[in-house]
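Format notes (please read before filing issues)

Several people have asked whether sequences and structure tokens are stored in separate files. They are not. Every record keeps both together, in the order shown below: the sequence lines, then the token lines. Line labels are part of the format and must not be stripped during preprocessing.
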Amino acid sequence: MASKKERLEQILSDLADSLGSDLLGALIATPDGQVVVSLILKGSLDSRKLAAMAAAVVGTSERLSSLLETGDFEDVLIRCEKENILARKAGKRAILVSVVKKDANIGLLNIEIEDATERIISVLGS
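Then the structure lines:
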């Protein structure tokens, strides 16, 4: 049987296969910003910095949604001039972060990220 790390790496690999060239990188991080596994397809991405900053954004977004009583935080999409970044909670133990091209199909991205998130939860627990 595959280890947890191997199963999580497979999830990122499947995500890359599903999104094709639109995906520039993806990683699974802990809520405190530590990299669990990463798949960096664009050379200039630093997985440690990406994990740390995404965890900070998710943590701040969770606190904001709590403060405003808008319900449980789900994800954050950061739209940038050249690329977009999506960070989604994967249960209480992980965050899935993806960097995609600016013109990536966000609908497909959301569907694939939701599927990947469910698989991460099945490996790590909720």
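For reference, the curators noted about this record: Residues 11 and 91 are 15 Å apart (CA to CA). The first helix runs from residue 4 to 19.
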